[in-house]
Design brief:
By secondary structure, the chain is α+β, with helices and mostly antiparallel strands. Helix content is about 40%, strand content about 25%. Among the domains are: about 235-330, Zincin-like (2-Layer Sandwich); about 335-465, Neutral Protease, domain 2 (Orthogonal Bundle); about 475-555, Immunoglobulin-like, CATH 2.60.40; about 705-814. The protein has 28 helices and 31 strands. Strands 6-5-9-3-2-12-15-14 form an 8-stranded mixed sheet, with no helix packed on it. Strands 17-18-19-21-20 form a 5-stranded mixed sheet. α12 (about 555-565) packs parallel to α14 (about 585-595) and α19 runs parallel beside α22. The longest helix is centred in the middle third of the chain and has 19 residues, at about 345-365. The relative contact order is 0.06.
């Protein structure tokens, strides 16, 4: 499962309040029975949003003899329940199906139940999480076809325990079963499920039955069905089919979006030492999907944010990390599954770290380090310090899907790799996978695998990083002894718990960098290093591997040196941001301007975003450099940043640069160029914006919103209204949030009934989507404010507009 960070931002930005449920102990689920095989026959009632199902589920007692069996089955109607053709007595409470067997069955004595049922996902009562915003298992999208802008689809989401919303099972990650599914759908639809499509049968009533067979073992939460009008774009890894299920509109771009998948499967097979273990790899993009993506075995589903067009892909494939994440889950999560949600990190930390590994392999270490920085930043900015990586005490299993299990877990694996070395680290992964393939694993087994390979004791590492919380804060000081020509690096851990860790220290002397690695094993430690000439600079955590905070008194000269000489993007970033408010000093301005020449494009962007050109007449050479970046940098994202920086000058002489940018194939460049042009040639910018196709306007909605608001363009309020909620609450950028708050106020006070309707509908949609975070209450409050704003503004259509708002409010109150 890919954690979709924009969803998390809803919680952070809106500042919800709720009563925290009491943490309780959650062990691995007790295994009374083992699943062996699951066979399903399903068809759909689109109007009722229900599934008509038949199931043959084969089980056996795990160890102790028993004459009872309990299956998870949520909000279903049970029509028949038989064993060997004979009806069995059962009790059902809408959650558990408790069945009385006709006799006692002993260990390894298998039996097969037949169940005829109706699944009713709309009646499911369990809640979702920050990572997975709904938990009803089976989703009907536009089932009646009433929305002309949305296709009809059906898809499933099993994690964490929602497969039991569409078929009875033992819905626990420590169960493994093979499966068969017969899916009957109207003939115009294609289907996708786990395993191989063995057969398709056309039925007399205009439907078709597809038979999908999966003869390997995996957990019930990884079962998947997808139904819709998809184009199937064929690809392959070796002789293994790799297919992309996309809507027809995006078929021409499917390989640009997903085309790295075969290379990912090859790379991950190589580094794990375990060849891709399944018979196909398919990826489907579902509408209104409830998370980022999900690693259903051989049948991955992605949310529609995976869809991109060439004008976006030329800048970057924003979904590439998610594609890698779900692919790697086919080793960590699907082949070997966390035996309990408490151990979720043995699935998710590896998938998280696979993003780093793939980026390092394809784009280099700087790119991967920049990605790791963002992951760690998300962990640190959350309320995560007191959470253990492996934790058995939590309020709800959904709480495990957080930036600790994912982001911190990935950072910990990065530290473990650094400590063991690549050869031992990857060999340890192979040992763990081979020992537990088609089964389950936990953190202790992971430790034992790495210990077996490396010969090292790793209890200290796992105890502090997996079975405890937090990270070190290092207070650094230096003592120079000019007589002995030594420098002592003093390290004081200021947090409550003392960590032990290897630490990289770079000492720069006479233009040369020397790397020292020390092992810190106490609260206060001091390490002495000789020098010939007093060092120009010392960099702590020089490889940026240790997950920590560093407190250090640095002077301006230190930051200038760090910006020029640090080897890690993270340290260059730290220095540049520390210097950005000191550019009245020529040496600082020069250092930041020189950073625009950095070989790593993200440093160039950072420099462009922070350079201060307020005294443009004295900085012509720098402006000329930025013009060259705007027109010629090989990275379009750098071009866009350069355009934005030049746009702040509002200089008519720069018009030719902006005109060229308006013709760019990059939507990032186009959006920045429109805003820049608006301040030097308003008419040209507006004319260009009006000629853009609707789909392009949606992609660059934020710069257009800025123009239309400043222009007071009433004609474009309808367009703006459809983007307000995402901009106000889901963007991490405070300037964008402020822009859309301004848009909200303007629309709420306007006479434009259509814009009022669009905004109200968007509030209702977001309120329903994020209801488990009380966003419905936020929506009600926003709608009430709209009513008051209409009354205060007193527009001529106020009675009509208020009625529109109240109608929307009624939907949200249902």
């Amino acid at each position: 499962m890919k954690l979709f960070n924009r969803i998390i931002l809803v919680i952070l930005v809106v500042n919800f309040s709720w009563v925290q449920a009491q943490d309780v102990y959650h062990p691995e689920r007790e295994k009374t029975h083992d699943l062996i095989h699951t066979k399903l026959k399903v068809a759909f009632d689109f109007k009722a949003k229900e599934l008509k199902g038949e199931e043959w589920v084969r089980l056996r007692p795990h160890f102790y003899a028993t004459d009872k069996v309990v299956l998870d089955a949520k909000a279903m109607l049970i029509h028949e329940l038989k064993l060997n053709g004979k009806t069995l007595p059962y009790n059902y409470d809408d959650f558990k199906l408790r069945i009385d067997l006709p006799r006692v069955y002993k260990k390894d004595e298998a039996f097969e139940l037949y169940i005829k049922y109706t699944a009713r996902p709309e009646r499911v009562k369990q809640q979702g999480s920050a990572a997975i915003t709904s938990a009803k298992g089976l989703y009907f999208i536009n089932p009646n076809g009433l929305d002309p802008d949305k296709p009809t689809q059906v898809w499933t989401q099993g994690e964490t325990e929602a497969s039991s919303c569409w078929f009875p099972t033992i819905d626990a990650p420590n169960q493994k079963t093979s499966q068969e599914i017969y899916i009957t759908v109207p003939s115009k639809y294609v289907t996708l499920s786990n395993g191989k499509l063995e057969k398709q049968t056309n039925n007399p009533d205009g439907t078709r039955t597809d038979y999908w067979n999966f003869n390997q073992k995996h957990a019930p939460y990884l079962f998947f069905m997808g139904v819709g009008e998809f184009e199937i774009i064929r690809d392959k890894y070796k002789e293994i089919p790799v297919d992309y299920y996309v809507e027809k509109k995006y078929a021409p771009y499917a390989k640009e979006i997903f085309g790295d998948t075969p290379a990912m499967l090859a790379f991950f097979s190589k580094i794990t030492g375990v060849e891709y273990p399944w018979n196909k790899y398919a990826q489907l993009v579902g509408r209104d999907y409830v998370s980022g993506a999900m690693e259903n075995t051989t049948a991955v589903i992605h949310g529609e944010h995976a869809y991109q067009v060439p004008g976006q892909l030329i800048d970057q494939n924003s979904h590439e990390k998610t594609i890698a994440h779900e692919a790697f889950h086919h080793w960590f999560g699907d082949l070997v599954t966390a035996e309990s949600w408490s151990n979720l990190t043995v699935n998710e930390s590896f998938a998280n770290y696979s993003e780093y590994l793939w980026f390092e392999h394809k784009y280099g270490k700087d790119f991967a380090d920049a990605h790791m920085f963002e992951e760690i930043k998300a962990y640190k900015e959350g309320q995560n310090f007191n959470k253990h990586l492996v934790r058995f005490n939590y309020a709800d299993k959904e709480d495990m899907f957080d930036a600790v299990s994912y982001n911190k877990g990935g950072a910990i694996l990065h530290m473990l790799r650094n400590y063991l070395g690549d050869e031992a680290f990857f060999a340890g992964m192979k040992t763990y996978l081979e020992a537990h393939k088609y089964g389950t694993g936990e953190a202790h087994q992971l430790r034992l695998a790495f210990e077996k390979v490396s010969g090292k004791d790793l209890n200290w590492f796992f105890n502090q990083w997996y079975f405890s919380n937090g990270h070190p804060t290092l207070d650094i000081s230096y003592d120079y002894n000019k007589l002995l020509k030594t420098v002592a690096v003093n390290i004081n851990q200021t947090q409550d718990k003392v960590f032990q860790f290897p630490l990289a220290i770079d000492i720069f002397e006479g233009g040369k960098r020397t790397r020292h690695t020390v092992f810190v094993d106490g609260r206060e430690r001091s390490f002495s290093f000789p020098f010939t000439k007093q060092p120009e600079y010392i960099q702590i955590n020089a490889d940026a591997v240790l997950l920590c905070d560093v407190i250090e008194n640095k002077l301006t000269d230190d930051y200038i040196f760090q910006l020029k000489n640090a080897v890690s993007f993270i340290h260059k970033r730290e220095a540049l941001l520390a210097l950005r408010n000191k550019q009245d000093e020529k040496r600082v301005f020069k250092a930041i301007s020189q950073a625009m020449n950095d070989p790593f494009f993200k440093v160039r962007i950072l420099a462009l975003n922070n350079i201060n050109l307020i005294y443009k007449n004295s900085k012509k050479a720098v402006i000329e450099k930025i013009k060259q970046l705007a027109m010629n940098d090989p990275k379009t994202l750098v071009q866009a940043a350069a355009i934005e920086t030049l746009g702040k000058l509002t200089d008519p002489e720069l018009k030719p640069v902006f005109e060229k940018a308006l013709e760019s194939k990059s939507y990032a460049v186009l959006g920045k160029a429109l805003v820049a042009m608006y301040y030097v040639d308003k008419d040209l910018a507006i004319k260009k914006s009006k000629t853009l196709p609707v789909e392009v306007k949606k992609i660059i909605a934020t710069p257009l919103t800025r123009i239309y608001l400043e222009e007071n363009d009433a004609e474009e309020l309808n367009f703006i209204a459809s983007n307000v909620m995402s901009g106000m609450f889901l963007s991490p950028n405070k300037q964008i949030q402020s822009l859309y708050k301004k848009a909200y106020d303007k629309i709420a006070e306007s006479n434009n009934s259509e814009a009022i309707r669009n905004l109200a509908n968007d509030i209702v949609a977001k309120g329903i989507q994020y209801k488990q975070y009380n966003f419905d209450k936020v929506g009600i409050n926003l709608l009430r404010q709209m009513v008051q704003k209409q009354k205060n503004a007193n527009p001529s259509n106020k009675h009509k507009n208020i009625e529109i708002i109240k109608t929307a409010m009624a939907k949200l109150l249902e």
